[in-house]
Structures are given as C-alpha cells and as structure tokens.
Amino acid sequence: MSDAILPATAATDSAARRDIGIKKRYAAEQRFRIYGIAAITVGIAFLFILLGSIVSKGYTAFTQTTISIPVLFDPAIIDPDNERATDPKVLVTANYPNMARNALATALGVDPSDRAALRQVGDMVSDSVRAQFRSLVTANPDLIGTTQTVSFLASGDLDSVYKGQVDLRVDEARRKISDQQIAWMNQLKEKGQLGAAFNWGLFTLGASSRAESAGLGVALVGSLFMMLIVLVLALPIGVAASIYLEEFAKRNRFTDLIEVNINNLAAVPSIVFGLLGLAVFINFFGLPRSAPIVGGLVLTLMTLPTIIIATRAALRSVPPSIRSAALGIGASRMQMVFHHVLPLAAPGILTGTIIGLARALGETAPLLLIGMVAFVADAPRSPLDPATALPVQIYMWTNEAERAFVERTSGAIIVLLIFLAIMNLTAILLRRRFERRW
Length: 438
Fold this sequence. Notes:
Helix content is 66%, strand content 5%. By secondary structure, it is mainly alpha-helical. It has three domains: 2-59; 61-205, no CATH class; 217-434, MetI-like fold.
C-alpha cells in the first residue's frame, strides 16, 4: 500500500512545486511590467514638469506692453537751431526719450514743472524709443512740428507689472515701480492707451541691455548661417566617406582604425571641438571671431561622425540581393551604388542628417570658445559678420540680473525647442514615408 501511495505523493509534490515556480515567474513578470510602467510614468511626469515650468515662465515673452499716445515731434527738442538743412546729424543726436516722456506726461496730465513726477514718467518708457523715433524722423523730416499717434514700448519694469509678474503687495520701497506709476498704468489702460501686443521684436531685434528691446533676431540669423554651412559641408563629405568605407574600401587594419576613430569622435565632448576650432580656424587660419563661418565649421566637424555612422547603417540595411542583382545584369560597382543602393538608403541618410543638424543647433560649449558671446545688435549680412546663436543667446540672458530677462530666457528656450521638435518630427515623417522594410 505504501509503495502505491508514495509515487502519487511525489507526483503531487512535483506538480505543486511546478505550479509555485510558474506563479513566481508570472509574479516576477508582473512586477517587471509595473516597474517599467512606473519608470515611464516618472519620466513623463518630469518631462511635463520641465515643459510646464518653461512654458509658464516664457509664454509672456511673446507679448509686449506698448503705449499708444499722441506725440509732438517738438522742434525745440529735435532741431532747436533749425540746422537740419545744413547738418542732418542733428536729427540723429536729438533727445528723443525726453520727447516721449513729455508726450506721456501730457497724456497723464502731469505738471511739466514737477521734476520728480517727470522722472517717474520717464522711467515708464523704454529707452528703445530713441532708435524708434530717430528712424521715424530721419526717414521723414516733415514729421517735425506735427503731432502723431505713435506706439512705443513700455519699460521692462512696467511690462512685468502689467503681466502680473510682480507682487504688488510688497512694500513700495522694495519694488522698482512706485504706486504712482501703477496708478498711471491703470489710467492709461482704462483709456485704451496701454495694452499688450504680439512681440515681433523677439524675432527681429538684436542684443540689448534693456529686456523689453532685446530679441533673437541676430541669434536666428546666426544659427541659420551655421546650419546652412553644416548642411553644405557635412552632408556631402559624410555621405561620400560612408559610401567609400562601406562599399569600396578593403577590410584591413587601416580601415578598422578609421572606423574606431569615427566611433570615438562621435563620443568626444563638444567642448573639445570648440578648442579645435579656436586653435585651427581662428589662431591658425585667422578667421574672424564670433563669425558664423567658424561656428559652422566647428559644428561640421562635430556632426560628421553622426552622419557617417547613420549613413553606413542605412547602407547596410539595403539587402545584399540588390547589389548582386545590379552586378548580375552588368552594372559597374559605381552604378550599383549610386543607381540602386544609395536611393534605397536615402531615407535613413536624411534621418541621420536631420538628427545631426538638430544636435548641432542645440550646442553651446563649442560656440562659447570661438567667441560667439559677443554683444551684437545688428543682424549679420554674411557668414563672416559677427553673430551669435540661439543656445548662446539663452546662455547670455540667464546671466542678466533684470527680472524681465527671465521670461525672455524661457521664451527663447521655447523657440529653440520648437525648432528641435520640428526637425525631429521631420526626420520621423521622412523615415515613415520613404522607409522600405525588407
């Protein structure tokens, strides 16, 4: 009896152990899934926190507070001695901020003899009116002596208060704007003479010590010049090097050494390329500092390994049967590569190129070393003119002390992220549109 029972008991124990093992494996798999979902959730949460912080601080940079009032182009301020016919320079050197201050004081009903009040009125006006009114008068001297309704920028402090970025419950002595200025702001707002408009200056203006008149115009043009240089140089050089290494070069120690160095260059910190550009392009070849041509050459060197690696991967993805078929019908090796393999690998090459350009667009360290942190107010007309770049402009604004530059910095980050998102989305769409699965 015991002999018959023992095998059944052993079988039952074995089945029980097997069931326990299966349950443990299922439980481990379930825990792994939970860990993975938790990791993804935490990553997405941090991403939304980051983007939310940037957007909440930067969306106000796309609007700017403006004042629209009648302005007397007073001859006593612009040309008191009536010399503009013989000396046009008087139109350039006139004290236009005082003219804007007087116009605003008149609109607010401030006594012209009250110097303290006039000083506060003047602090409500951006110093950018100097260039704005100078351009208006020099372009049309007939404005002198007339009264025209003109829109000009409010000061950065007034702009911050109007946008609700300043805690007005703080004692007046600890604020940069007084209660009287706040009352005047509300007075202008009620009359419809003060309001927020889209800040086109963020995309057209250059560097300025005043936040309300600082923009990304120079940085956008400088980044455009650099990306064009990178595209013109890195794409053909990178594709040509990849085709040679993948399709024509013999496998030997020399080509192995080249491949190892290409892979190593892809992992080199970007600041090393900045040192290389400083030593070679500026100190040795004598190219101008702060010029997009130097930045483009440095970013080309940095982008080349990425494009070469992506292009070689795209060429490898083409099935060997395509090559065999082309050679079998009498095509030369050159015809096989350029007529059959390269067109099929083009989507992968374009994707790698766009990703490389996106990486180059966001680089800051190498551009700092070649001097692209200069204060440049006018947009460059050629790659040889001084300029800056989007990430460098963001870096420069973060070092400014004024509160208004905080929103400018976040707004510039939003613009940069939009460009990067567009470039990466383009790479994804091109890959999905033209990619062939074998």
